[in-house]
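Please check this chain.
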Amino acid sequence: MNKKIAIIGSGFSSLSAACYLAKSGMNVTVFEKNATLGGRARRFSKEGFNFDMGPTWYWMPDVFEKFFNDFEKKPADYYELDKLTPAYKVYFSKTEQVTISDNLEEITKTFENIEKGSGKKLQKFIQQAKDNYAIAVEKMVYKPGDSIFELISVETAFRVHQFFSTIKKDVRKQFKDERLRQILEFPVLFLGAKPSNTPSFYNFMNYADFGLGTWHPKSGMYSVVAAMVSLAKSLGVNFQTSANVSKIIVENGVAKGLKVNNENCFFDAILSGADYHHTETLLDEKYRMYTEKYWEKKTFAPSSLLFYVGFDKKIANVEHHTLFFDTSFEAHAKEIYDVKKWPKEPLFYASFPSITDSFFAPHGKEAATFLIPIAPGLNDSAAIREEYFNIIMERLEKLTGQSLKDFVIFKESYCVQNFINDYNSYKGNAYGLANILSQTAFLRPKIKSRKVQNLFFTGQLTVPGPGVPPSIISGKIASEKILKTMKL
């Protein structure tokens, strides 16, 4: 008889795990508290506009390929994928912008034009990043985080120094122009930490950026969610939405089921892709592995203040992905990680997907998502949101040289309290635990509970870490751990 597996949440890690478990013959049911599937990667639609509510960057396409290949499928079976040309644009001031091309040769020329001699340095830097990427993806990120020995190999032994230096040190040793430095430091923000706290080895994200490129799935990241749901359903996975889990049922130290919408449902194993901290609150205290003090001491990746905006005009002088680094990178990072207060002069990111994909906005109009990284746990109010919307609109108008505020059809905001309400996110964080040295691999919260038999975890708070590709990998790791534990 097939074992019954319950999965809490329907984010990327849960969808990944559901597919692998169902493929292995398990009877899988996914419980999602919200009305739609996808977790943080839900879609928001209004007045003919569409928005990806969460992730908007499609990096590391090889990880998506590998996932679908495991089921004898490929991404193209489900969605159309285009490489963005250019990849993105960075504003440093009204007169200083750097456009990052879709290929390393052009990017090298861009660097050389800005700083003489930096082109060759960049090629050497990216070659090292490429080597690290191969080691990370092939030998490290698919490990379950059980032991330090997972990190030990001939390849990592030769690179041990890279775990004790930082991205910031390496970049600033080789490149003098501040703009180039910030462009090279930017990708590690996807790992949820400051470049000064991120080990040098993680420069593999620079290869993900410059080497593998930035892609766009037609109709957005929700197309990937829809693809994974379609695959899961074809494998027999059952989905239940508006299904709130209020308790993990444990008998004699063994997970037996869930209380869903106040009804008890029984299973052979439980996997939670929901927030790890929240999941443990569904257990009696004696069954929790990590205390409140433990979570308080952890370094969390940022939360975000997001705006989803419909404009009654096309916007000039921006690209599909546009970064606004016209204020101090250092000061904003300090306000997120050290001082933990609302930023005085925030950097921000904007996505204008309707530039390249008509799905996102009616003809002649523009859909825009704006994101300000902020510290988790901040007090969040309508007045604060409005203040920051005005700040970024004024800067956007000034930097791009056009009037925009008068063309706003509507705006919807999303911030700390929404992350808490919708995803039970610890302190309203958006990305999980930062990938700093003390929170890498075996030092992250465990996939398998040590206190409750047949209870497992997946997602951005466990291995391998934050981001869409790591979450997909996390689902695979968790499924393997479940199957091994249950000896199937």
User: Anything to note?
Assistant: The mean pLDDT is 96.
